[in-house]
Amino acid sequence: MNNTPQVVNEGASPGKFKPSRTVDEGEASFKESYPMALMGTRDGKEYFGRLSCLTKMAATFPAVAYGGLRYFETGYMKKFYTDDYPRASLSIMSTFLILATLLDLVWDPFVAALTDGTRRVCGRDWGRRRPFLVVASFIVTLFYALGFSPPAILSAQAQQDAEAWYAQHGDAQAPVFNSLPAAECGSACSTFWSRWYQTQCKTSHMGRCW
């Protein structure tokens, strides 16, 4: 007996999607593979794959925390570093906002390939991406907090010394810092505060990519 699920697509014409229904032969196989899915009705036809409201809420609720963090980063972080701590350069921050997107073209596929191929950790099969999500939850939380907590111990003279030090040595360090994943942030710029901003945002972005 063929246990392959069969799908009947009634009334379909080329180039036009019509709701499908699963015949009884494949129903058990689908239910075994997707235990959270239920039978449903669409346009008067029965189909398998309906999700309950509770299941949908459980799947999307984690996005609330991520959205809250992104709201503060996108809406307040740049203002925080230019108004509350007016030492970061907007031009440099804008430049690395663009470079961040370009770096994502390389970084995101790499992370996707890494997480797709990593399932077993400590001898246990956690599933695809789950180990990375667990680790990233701590990384992102920590560095979002650090992003809004720049050191307040530097005097004006120390700030000038930091700028002078960067002018002499910063160019040599820039390739190392810029090789890290970046987010909407400033990077190698002429102030200690923009450097702090850069480090926190890049690390939190790496966690989000995971």
Structure description:
Keywords: Membrane, Transmembrane, Transmembrane helix. It holds the Pfam family MFS_2. The protein is mainly alpha-helical. The chain folds into two domains: 50 residues, no CATH class; 148 residues, no CATH class. The protein has a two-stranded antiparallel sheet with strand order 1-2. The chain has a two-stranded antiparallel ribbon with strand order 3-4. Strands 5-6 form a two-stranded antiparallel sheet. It is elongated, with a radius of gyration of 25 Å. 16% of the residues are buried.
Describe what is shown at a glance.
It is built from 7 helices and 6 strands. The protein folds into 2 domains: 7-56, no CATH class; 62-209, no CATH class. It is mainly alpha-helical.
The count of domains is 2
Derived structural class: mainly alpha
Strand order of the largest sheet: 1-2
Number of helices: 7
Strand content: 5-15%
Mean pLDDT: 64
For the sheet with most strands, the description reads: 2 strands, antiparallel
How far is the first residue's CA from the last residue's CA? 43 Å
Radius of gyration: 25 Å
How helical, in percent, are the residues? 55-70%
Write the layout of secondary structure elements.
Blueprint: E1 7-8, E2 21-22, H1 24-33, E3 38-42, E4 45-50, H2 53-60, H3 62-84, H4 90-116, E5 120-121, E6 124-125, H5 130-147, H6 156-178, H7 192-209
Helix pairs in contact: 5-7
Attribute tags:
single chain, 210 residues, mainly alpha, 2 domains, two-stranded antiparallel sheet, 6 strands, elongated, disordered C terminus
